[in-house]
Structure formats: C-alpha cells, structure tokens
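Input for the complex:
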Amino acid sequence: MTAPHVLGDLLAPDSDVFRACTNKNFLNNLKTEIRDRAYYRKPKDTDGLSLGLTVDDAVHDLENFGVIGAGVAQIQNLPRGLEVRTDPELPGHALLHGLPYKHENEKLAEDIAWELVKISRIVHNDSYYPPGHRLHAP
Amino acid sequence: MTFYCVDDIQDREKRYAEIVALSFSATGAPWNLLDSPPQRVSIATYLLGTTALAVSSAEELFAVGDSKPNPAKESLIKQIENIPSHRDFYDADETPPDQGTRNDARKIILGVSPSGVLAGADVYGYYGGVNICWETPRRKIKLVIPPHASGGQPTLYHGQMQDGSVMESDIEPNADSKLLRTWLDWLQG
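Predicted:
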C-alpha cells in the first residue's frame, strides 16, 4: 500500500503551468490543435495530472513530442473545483487535482478535458529537449 | 477515365437487382417501399415513383462502394485506415486500434448519408479504440469505437459550450450511422 500523497501549495493565479506531450496523439495531425486526450486522467495518474512549473520542468527526463501550457487562473476559474498545486516531493513539478478518472466518469472527464483544451495553448509542437536533458542534441 | 472490373459490375448489378426485387416483394406489388398506397395516383405514376425510389437507394449503396466515392467519406475512411501504429503515438501501456476495430469504425461511417456532413473530422487511436471528433466553436461530438475484441458498443459524446464551460452534454450508447447522422446535423445547427 502506498502512502497518501502530501498536498503541496496552491499555485499563484498569475502563473502558468506546462504539460509535456508524452505521445504524438496529444496534438492533431497538423500539430495545430490540442486533443482532449492530453487532459484525460488515467488510472496511473493516482496523484493527479502531471504538470511543470516551467517548460523545462514539464519535459524533465521525459521523451516528449511537444509541450502545451495554460494559465493557473483560467484552470482554477473553471467551475469544476480544479486545483493546481506544487508537488512537495519533486521541485518544479505540479499536479492538477480534481480531475475525474476517465474510466469512472467518462462524461465529466470529456467535459473538463474539452474545457481545458480551450484554455490551453501549444508551446512546442515538436520534441523539446533543453540543454541538460538526457535527449538534448547540441 | 474510370475502369471497372467485371466482378464490380456484376456485384453492383446483383445489388441493384436485390433492391428492385425488394420493392416488388411481399405483396407482389411495387408499393411496399412506401408508407401507404396513394389513393388517386395511376399505376403508371406509382411504378415510376417506386422505381425512382429503388434507383435512389441503389445509388446510395453504390456511393458506399467504390464507383462514386464521396470526397468527405473517402477522406475519413482513409484517416481511419491510416491511424498510426507507431509507438510514438501511444502511451507505454497502450496499443493502436487493430483491423477489426478500424472495420467497425469504417462500417459506421459508410452508413452515413449524405456524406458531406462527415467533413472536418479528427481521427485518432486511444487505448485500442478509434475516436472520431467533429467540432465547431461551441459544439462537439465524438464517436468512440471501442476495441473490437472488447465486445463493447460504440458511444457518441455530444456537448455544447458557452463562455468556456460545457453547459449541456451526454454520452449516447449503442451509436450507429443513423445516430451519428442525427448528431452531425445538430452540430451544424
């Protein structure tokens, strides 16, 4: 049995958070639109949906196919009770709390994913590996 | 120039014959394709009307086949067939849709008429299933075809957004071509 996750602090409303596209299906074929699956909470996302405080934090140690971002205020202003909190166990990491699991409440998960897509933007539409990343190519 | 192989022509002629035969079956009269027999229409007019209906149905069937491909339908079928299988498109614990699942999706799309309403779809795989989305600034529908081996039924999500929030939405079970057509009409409404 794993220990319950310790909640971090709420992020300031004027900050942004970023999410790595961990597969190519997060974006449409033209890489111009974000797909709702970028914001589905799956069974493995026990602590919440993984976010980074910066673009570099979002792709930390991850193979990625782009990065998307959104404003914390816009996320927390959705009438869904969502919270964006720091992860006390991993500096630079944040978690989106309050998302339903897709397999438990599919309609609500679809609704919220669509709303999150609407307030999100594409930061990188291709793989992004900053200096220091294990996959960085100079 | 269009080339038809003999098998295609024979197949189409057979399907046409089946439709015409259907219109004359049961009572032996041609009006069983219509809701009720007309009261003051000559049999000649009636035969013409029924034949036109049969031909219309045959044309729709042929449009489903290869002879008169509709660009929107053809493009969507290609998108389904071309859903990537490469691992870059999926999570580590995820598989791409197999051929049986793609065929299930194809069947629903082929049954939608008229085909123009199908334009603008985004198609992608999700955990062995096929997702097909259509969206306008305020409305969205998504046809979800589950993995064939799961034995599950396709579903259709439809939602309407206002000021950035989804105001109305639902998921319809047992989605088929007819249901999809109904919600595609709603999407444009």
